[in-house]
Predict the structure.
Amino acid sequence: MRNRFDTLKFAIPAEAVRGIKEAAFNQKTDLDLETGQIRTWLKAKPTALPIGFGELTNERNHPDWTISLSAKSLGDSYLHGIGLENIEEALSGISKILDLNLYAALDSNPSIYRADTCDNISLAAIGTNSQSQIMEALDLAKRNPKFKTQIFNRAKNIGITFKGTQEEKNYIKAYDKHLDLNRTKNEEFLKSLKHPVRMIEQAKLICRIESEHNTNRSFRNRFKTEPRLLDILDSKAKVNHDFLAKVIGTEGQLKLFDEILQAKQAKQSPRQFIRELGLREFAKSCNYNIHQIEQAFRLLYPVRQDFHYNWNGARKEGKAYGGAKAEFQAIIEANQGTKPNHHQPFQTESNFIVQNIMQALAA
């Protein structure tokens, strides 16, 4: 399956432009005081750009124009995104201010400067109706330190963004599309639709995944092709899946995170949890053998009285209280019969959510 796109920025060859609506443009002139070179630019006025178009510029005598458009140019089909089959429809709206030969523009397979891929994953496929739970699960799953995390959990914005910290600084994000459509910035767009309520209702049922690509290297590495518009649109690389896999890794969520959540639900104090975790790791390092654990305690407490106090505990009315021996025995009993498979991720509810997202992106 080919990728879908929320945003595209690419070149348009000058020979494909037959004319412009002059009232829709501003002209800007730059003078280089050192060389005396004069450069003249045409730029579409923001107020003149049709809905879905973010930029239209041209340097006079330069062979290419630059255009930026979003899937909003598709109107009621916005959520489906831009693809190879509807790029002509998405681009056709610019005819209000630009006399463009669509066939000449697309047949040239122009250079592409930016592309934002998008996927709509149904909440039913993810296994939860809670957008906040999805973002928390993705946050817990993140492993790659080369990405910074930003979480939004507000009344009008629920989402998570992982942004690279190296040269490209591209991002991948997941967010509640329903809340996004209801923000002030989308009022004009919704008013332009024939069926705005239908789109909003559809958005309630999905989680949106988007990733950004804006360098030749990122296009070649992620789309497995050259940075040309039609080649990128025709690519069948699993771009969002591969990008998210790079962020979260493949080993699954740490068991520790789920244990912390369980401890919080049981109202266990952080100090108690950390102590219990330490005892379990101590037992594990001794192969859950009570005799080896006891021997280790004897090494830790060479003074006999100290050893008995910490191992057996204090005695009151013939019973021991506070010693580590009883706690280790309980840990060993709980571990009996379990053979952890280190090749399988620990299955928690949040890990289940992330696995469902990855399966959907790979489909």
